[in-house]
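Lines hold sequence, tokenised fold; shown next:
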Amino acid sequence: MKLRLLPSFDAFKKRLPRIFLGLALTIIFCLQAGSFLSISFLDRLDGIVYDTKVRLNAIPSVDPRIVIVDIDEKSLQEREKGGEGRWPWPRDRLALLVNRLFGDYEVSLAGFDVIFSERDESSGIRTIDELAQKQLKDNANFQSQYASIKSALNYDAKFAESFKDRSIILGLSFLSPGDNAKKGALPQSELTTQEIPITLVSALKRDGFTANLELLQASAADGGHVNPTVDADGIIRKIPMLIQHGDRYYESLGLAAARNLLGGLPIKPVLAPGATANTLGGLEFLDVGGAMLPVDQELTSYIPYRGPYKSFEYISASDVLGKTVPKEKLEGKIILIGTTAPGLLDLRATPVGNAYPGVEIHANLIAGILDGTIKQAPLWTQAANLLLILVLGVALSLLLPFMSPLWGSIVAVMTLGGVGLLNWYSYQSSYVLPAAALLGSLLLIYLMNIAYGFFVESRGKRLITGLFGQYVPPELVDEMAQDPSSFSMEGESRELTILFSDVRGFTTISESLDAKTLSEFINAFLTPFTKVIYKNRGTIDKYMGDCIMAFWGAPIKDEDHARHGLISAFEMLKAMELLNAEFINKGWPPIKVGIGLNSGRVSVGNMGSEIRLAYTVMGDAVNLASRLEGITKEYGAAIIIGEETRKQLPDLIAREVDKVRVKGKDIAVTIFEPLGFEGQVGERQLTALPLFESALKAYREQRWDDAQHQFENLLQNHKDTGEVLYELYLERIALLRDNPPGDQWDGAFTFTKK
């Protein structure tokens, strides 16, 4: 007895489609993981996975080192209610706040998540200055009194004085790309593009900023930006440690505060092993006073969220000003001054909360730098992710098609579980590995194999494809396959829109081309025209040499059959313009098409003989559509539509060109030239339209002189909007003036040929 270790050739051949599909999925996800393809859904999913890991790793305690002095609702209450009034507060009150923190509570550092870019004029100093310089310039008594109190009224100077010999870090904000406005003064920065070359990183570069008054920034120990990185889903997961402005880098508020606490030493770039100054993404760490801060090639770092809102102690700013806080709560602490008051709009969406105070983001960053808990995602993590997708994707693509559903499920679940555990372990080891592309590729390969037989080999779909595949596009076949019992080829009466399209002068064109070239020529324009019809849910009835017959509303019912038919006609004209440019380059003659479109109740179904059947339509509405196509050249129109089609399109701007009796019909029908839907018609056509309607009215009322004058005016001033049409009516007027039609004339013209 032989043991078969490999599948037979027939078994392998039978499973080839599933193998190829699995390998194709693997390639797609590899392209995404390698940044050659962007799949936004996977990016969002990666964010969700990361956020879940952050929440699962939350620390259920408050960090005692950092305290947030909160400009909260309580602080914004009126003075008589224990608050300081609405924001912004006078700077002398902020000076008092700083003096309280450092003088009374002896804190170690204070960082402001607030920007002071405007002068404080709450004391009235500007008004008094104007009086001193103008109206009371010569009043010695006033000048003497003002000189004695001027320094007391300069609240900005008081605020700056409170910074002296204290570790004060001020916040600033860089503006969006393209905004070059500059307000305030930036802090000193010793880190330039020489220390971190632009060939090494692709740091965020900003030109505009809103910073603090020069007096305040010069008095502070340092400053840092408050700009986080907002991902595509609106969540803040990272923050740029450094932002480039000109030839210098400016650190974040959290980094500036942490660096001050660590001794204020310069930031030193640390390259990955083997990297040089020209290796993009080769920078792995920033050495901040001995603390190693991991960064990516954009100089951003993951924010090490400790937990949800209030993972740090919050104390109302009004309580600090009122000295009602026990000293031990603040003594020696790192203080961040910010706001949680909703009206001040500093609430952000983060992995640990959708209304998270921005000031607490900086608190998390400071704590993470001091503790060394910031996660890292070096370049090799992307390579590892790509390799795992390739190896595991190929393995599952080759194995699952030959396994039973049970064993395939076991293998898939074990693989997915192992990948999940690896990702979790990496996170615990401070590495952020992408997860969505890897998990998504493995899951889709598994689901594809399970569902393959159901979706691909469905009997209903095969039946529908056999019946209608040659008439309707694959998208409609798939739609019909959802309920095959609803469709048959038996004849029925249904309201449809029918289109006939024909190339004008095709006989002359065909005589100028040899048989092979003529075949290529016909295929060249029938193919794009067919694609247009298919795209708009149309059914191809037949090709008749250079002519196309199509309809809308069967086999799938379409309430907008008239609209889809006319849109197809417009798009066929656009396709013709593109084709003519190609034809001229090939030395082929350009083409012009005439299109007739009509709506009405017809018979549709399988019709023919016992020998050959075809799914087609029959009825007066079909015949009229054919006649309309034939008379387009008479009016110089590319498209002519019937009255029933016009009625179904209220937003269509169309020109009523005539009433006609086509060959084989005694009843006159009104025909229209569609100009476009509302908002799509040019001013020239819109201007000429009422003039033509007036001329047509005069013509039908047999006011020949008036009608002639109006059509001649149209021909002279609006020739480009319908030259052939205007000349046609001038010829008719000349004929009818000599041969009056009589009082019983209904204004219709009778065609004696098709």
About this structure: The chain has four domains: 17-56+377-456, 63-371, 488-681, 683-749. The longest helix spans residues 561-586. The longest strand covers residues 593-608. The two ends are 79 Å apart (CA to CA).
